[in-house]
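I would love for you to help me understand the pair of lines that follows before we discuss the fold together.
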Amino acid sequence: ILARDGVISPIGQAIDDSAPLDIQQSNPTKVTHLQAAHIIPFTVSRYRTMQRLLSMFAGSSNLQSKLRGVSINSPSNIFCTDCYTHLLFDEFAIGIETANGRYWLRKLDLGRAAVGFIRDSADGDEICFAIGPEGNHIAVPDGELLNIHLAIGRVLRASGAGEIISRILKDEDDYNEGIVRDASSAARISAFAPKLKLNRLQDENSETEKLQQRGPEILRVTTNSQIGS
Protein backbone atom coordinates (compact mmCIF):
# COMPACT_ATOMS: atom_id res chain seq x y z
CA ILE A 1 0.00 0.00 0.00
CA LEU A 2 2.94 2.33 0.68
CA ALA A 3 4.24 1.51 -2.79
CA ARG A 4 0.84 2.45 -4.22
CA ASP A 5 0.10 5.61 -2.24
CA GLY A 6 3.52 6.80 -1.09
CA VAL A 7 4.91 7.34 2.41
CA ILE A 8 2.49 10.19 3.20
CA SER A 9 -0.98 8.88 4.02
CA PRO A 10 -3.69 10.22 1.69
CA ILE A 11 -6.06 10.44 4.68
CA GLY A 12 -4.59 12.60 7.45
CA GLN A 13 -1.31 13.35 5.65
CA ALA A 14 0.76 11.52 8.29
CA ILE A 15 4.33 10.58 7.31
CA ASP A 16 5.46 6.99 7.72
CA ASP A 17 8.59 6.52 9.82
CA SER A 18 10.14 4.62 6.90
CA ALA A 19 10.13 7.77 4.76
CA PRO A 20 13.44 9.31 3.64
CA LEU A 21 14.91 11.72 6.17
CA ASP A 22 14.26 14.80 4.06
CA ILE A 23 10.53 13.99 3.91
CA GLN A 24 10.40 13.40 7.66
CA GLN A 25 12.17 16.67 8.34
CA SER A 26 9.68 18.56 6.17
CA ASN A 27 7.03 18.06 8.86
CA PRO A 28 8.48 16.19 11.86
CA THR A 29 5.31 16.55 13.96
CA LYS A 30 3.47 14.29 11.52
CA VAL A 31 5.96 11.41 11.50
CA THR A 32 4.44 8.19 12.83
CA HIS A 33 4.10 4.51 12.00
CA LEU A 34 1.32 4.11 9.45
CA GLN A 35 -1.17 1.27 9.77
CA ALA A 36 -3.03 -0.73 7.15
CA ALA A 37 -6.74 -0.02 7.51
CA HIS A 38 -9.38 -2.33 6.03
CA ILE A 39 -12.39 -0.58 4.49
CA ILE A 40 -14.60 -3.57 5.27
CA PRO A 41 -13.22 -5.37 8.36
CA PHE A 42 -11.25 -8.57 7.86
CA THR A 43 -13.64 -10.49 10.15
CA VAL A 44 -16.47 -10.07 7.60
CA SER A 45 -14.73 -12.67 5.42
CA ARG A 46 -15.65 -15.30 8.02
CA TYR A 47 -19.37 -14.60 8.18
CA ARG A 48 -21.58 -15.38 5.19
CA THR A 49 -24.61 -13.79 6.87
CA MET A 50 -22.80 -10.46 7.20
CA GLN A 51 -21.68 -10.71 3.57
CA ARG A 52 -25.29 -11.22 2.45
CA LEU A 53 -26.55 -8.35 4.60
CA LEU A 54 -23.95 -5.97 3.21
CA SER A 55 -24.80 -7.10 -0.32
CA MET A 56 -28.49 -6.45 0.33
CA PHE A 57 -27.68 -3.05 1.83
CA ALA A 58 -25.57 -2.16 -1.20
CA GLY A 59 -28.02 -3.63 -3.70
CA SER A 60 -25.13 -5.46 -5.37
CA SER A 61 -24.96 -9.17 -6.16
CA ASN A 62 -21.22 -8.95 -6.85
CA LEU A 63 -20.25 -7.62 -3.45
CA GLN A 64 -20.00 -10.99 -1.69
CA SER A 65 -17.10 -12.08 -3.88
CA LYS A 66 -15.13 -9.03 -2.71
CA LEU A 67 -15.62 -9.99 0.92
CA ARG A 68 -14.48 -13.61 0.79
CA GLY A 69 -11.12 -15.33 1.05
CA VAL A 70 -8.06 -13.43 -0.13
CA SER A 71 -10.23 -10.68 -1.61
CA ILE A 72 -10.73 -9.15 1.84
CA ASN A 73 -6.98 -8.47 1.98
CA SER A 74 -6.79 -7.06 -1.53
CA PRO A 75 -5.23 -3.59 -1.88
CA SER A 76 -8.68 -2.51 -3.09
CA ASN A 77 -9.93 -2.98 0.49
CA ILE A 78 -6.96 -1.33 2.24
CA PHE A 79 -5.39 2.08 2.71
CA CYS A 80 -2.67 3.32 5.09
CA THR A 81 -3.13 5.98 7.74
CA ASP A 82 -2.13 6.87 11.30
CA CYS A 83 -3.61 4.98 14.25
CA TYR A 84 -6.07 7.70 15.36
CA THR A 85 -7.44 8.31 11.86
CA HIS A 86 -7.74 4.54 11.50
CA LEU A 87 -9.82 4.47 14.69
CA LEU A 88 -12.06 7.32 13.47
CA PHE A 89 -12.69 5.44 10.23
CA ASP A 90 -13.47 2.16 12.01
CA GLU A 91 -15.93 3.95 14.30
CA PHE A 92 -17.65 5.80 11.41
CA ALA A 93 -16.55 9.24 12.61
CA ILE A 94 -15.12 9.80 9.13
CA GLY A 95 -15.70 8.21 5.75
CA ILE A 96 -14.71 8.51 2.12
CA GLU A 97 -17.06 9.27 -0.74
CA THR A 98 -16.13 8.27 -4.26
CA ALA A 99 -17.52 8.83 -7.74
CA ASN A 100 -15.99 8.56 -11.20
CA GLY A 101 -12.61 7.56 -9.83
CA ARG A 102 -12.34 10.52 -7.43
CA TYR A 103 -12.40 10.46 -3.62
CA TRP A 104 -13.49 12.99 -0.98
CA LEU A 105 -13.15 13.03 2.80
CA ARG A 106 -16.41 13.15 4.76
CA LYS A 107 -16.38 14.07 8.44
CA LEU A 108 -19.42 12.47 10.06
CA ASP A 109 -18.45 13.48 13.60
CA LEU A 110 -16.92 16.95 13.41
CA GLY A 111 -15.99 17.00 17.08
CA ARG A 112 -13.92 13.83 17.07
CA ALA A 113 -12.43 14.63 13.66
CA ALA A 114 -11.15 17.98 14.95
CA VAL A 115 -8.16 16.38 16.70
CA GLY A 116 -5.28 14.25 15.51
CA PHE A 117 -3.69 14.48 12.08
CA ILE A 118 -7.11 14.57 10.42
CA ARG A 119 -7.84 17.99 12.00
CA ASP A 120 -5.86 19.70 9.22
CA SER A 121 -8.18 18.20 6.58
CA ALA A 122 -11.58 19.71 5.88
CA ASP A 123 -14.81 17.91 5.10
CA GLY A 124 -14.98 17.61 1.32
CA ASP A 125 -11.22 17.68 0.74
CA GLU A 126 -10.23 15.53 -2.22
CA ILE A 127 -8.12 12.46 -1.44
CA CYS A 128 -5.50 11.25 -3.89
CA PHE A 129 -4.48 7.59 -3.93
CA ALA A 130 -1.97 5.88 -6.24
CA ILE A 131 0.67 8.61 -6.18
CA GLY A 132 3.42 6.27 -4.95
CA PRO A 133 6.13 4.65 -7.11
CA GLU A 134 3.89 1.66 -7.95
CA GLY A 135 0.65 3.60 -8.11
CA ASN A 136 -0.15 2.58 -11.66
CA HIS A 137 0.24 -1.14 -10.98
CA ILE A 138 -1.68 -1.71 -7.73
CA ALA A 139 -5.47 -1.65 -7.31
CA VAL A 140 -6.82 1.52 -5.70
CA PRO A 141 -9.45 1.49 -2.89
CA ASP A 142 -12.73 0.10 -4.19
CA GLY A 143 -15.33 2.84 -4.57
CA GLU A 144 -18.24 0.52 -3.83
CA LEU A 145 -16.72 -0.58 -0.51
CA LEU A 146 -15.95 3.00 0.50
CA ASN A 147 -19.45 4.20 -0.35
CA ILE A 148 -20.99 1.32 1.61
CA HIS A 149 -18.88 2.20 4.64
CA LEU A 150 -19.91 5.85 4.32
CA ALA A 151 -23.60 4.96 3.94
CA ILE A 152 -23.52 2.83 7.09
CA GLY A 153 -21.89 5.70 8.97
CA ARG A 154 -24.55 8.13 7.80
CA VAL A 155 -27.32 5.76 8.85
CA LEU A 156 -25.77 5.45 12.31
CA ARG A 157 -25.57 9.23 12.67
CA ALA A 158 -29.05 9.88 11.30
CA SER A 159 -30.63 7.27 13.58
CA GLY A 160 -28.90 8.62 16.68
CA ALA A 161 -27.05 5.35 17.26
CA GLY A 162 -23.76 6.97 16.30
CA GLU A 163 -24.18 9.66 18.97
CA ILE A 164 -24.86 7.01 21.61
CA ILE A 165 -21.80 5.02 20.52
CA SER A 166 -19.62 8.15 20.64
CA ARG A 167 -20.86 9.02 24.14
CA ILE A 168 -20.10 5.51 25.41
CA LEU A 169 -16.61 5.63 23.88
CA LYS A 170 -15.98 9.07 25.39
CA ASP A 171 -17.06 7.83 28.83
CA GLU A 172 -14.74 4.85 28.48
CA ASP A 173 -11.85 7.14 27.48
CA ASP A 174 -12.48 9.34 30.54
CA TYR A 175 -12.57 6.30 32.81
CA ASN A 176 -9.40 4.78 31.35
CA GLU A 177 -7.57 8.10 31.72
CA GLY A 178 -8.52 8.34 35.40
CA ILE A 179 -10.91 11.27 35.00
CA VAL A 180 -13.79 9.17 36.33
CA ARG A 181 -13.02 6.94 39.31
CA ASP A 182 -16.13 6.34 41.42
CA ALA A 183 -17.76 2.90 41.35
CA SER A 184 -21.18 4.06 40.15
CA SER A 185 -19.68 5.77 37.11
CA ALA A 186 -17.54 2.73 36.44
CA ALA A 187 -20.66 0.58 36.42
CA ARG A 188 -22.41 2.99 34.07
CA ILE A 189 -19.44 3.11 31.71
CA SER A 190 -19.00 -0.65 31.73
CA ALA A 191 -19.72 -2.44 28.49
CA PHE A 192 -22.47 -4.28 30.36
CA ALA A 193 -24.46 -1.09 30.95
CA PRO A 194 -25.43 -0.32 27.34
CA LYS A 195 -26.09 -4.01 26.74
CA LEU A 196 -28.47 -4.17 29.71
CA LYS A 197 -30.21 -0.98 28.61
CA LEU A 198 -30.64 -2.38 25.12
CA ASN A 199 -32.05 -5.65 26.45
CA ARG A 200 -34.45 -3.73 28.72
CA LEU A 201 -35.62 -1.57 25.82
CA GLN A 202 -36.18 -4.64 23.65
CA ASP A 203 -38.21 -6.27 26.46
CA GLU A 204 -40.33 -3.12 26.83
CA ASN A 205 -40.95 -2.97 23.09
CA SER A 206 -41.90 -6.63 23.07
CA GLU A 207 -44.44 -6.12 25.87
CA THR A 208 -45.88 -3.07 24.08
CA GLU A 209 -46.31 -5.08 20.88
CA LYS A 210 -48.06 -7.87 22.79
CA LEU A 211 -50.49 -5.41 24.38
CA GLN A 212 -51.19 -3.81 21.01
CA GLN A 213 -51.89 -7.21 19.47
CA ARG A 214 -54.19 -8.16 22.37
CA GLY A 215 -55.93 -4.78 22.38
CA PRO A 216 -58.77 -5.61 19.99
CA GLU A 217 -59.34 -8.95 21.70
CA ILE A 218 -59.55 -7.34 25.15
CA LEU A 219 -61.90 -4.66 23.84
CA ARG A 220 -64.11 -7.24 22.18
CA VAL A 221 -64.43 -9.33 25.35
CA THR A 222 -65.28 -6.24 27.42
CA THR A 223 -67.94 -5.13 24.93
CA ASN A 224 -69.51 -8.55 24.76
CA SER A 225 -69.56 -8.69 28.54
CA GLN A 226 -71.44 -5.39 28.72
CA ILE A 227 -73.96 -6.49 26.11
CA GLY A 228 -74.58 -9.75 27.94
CA SER A 229 -75.27 -7.96 31.21
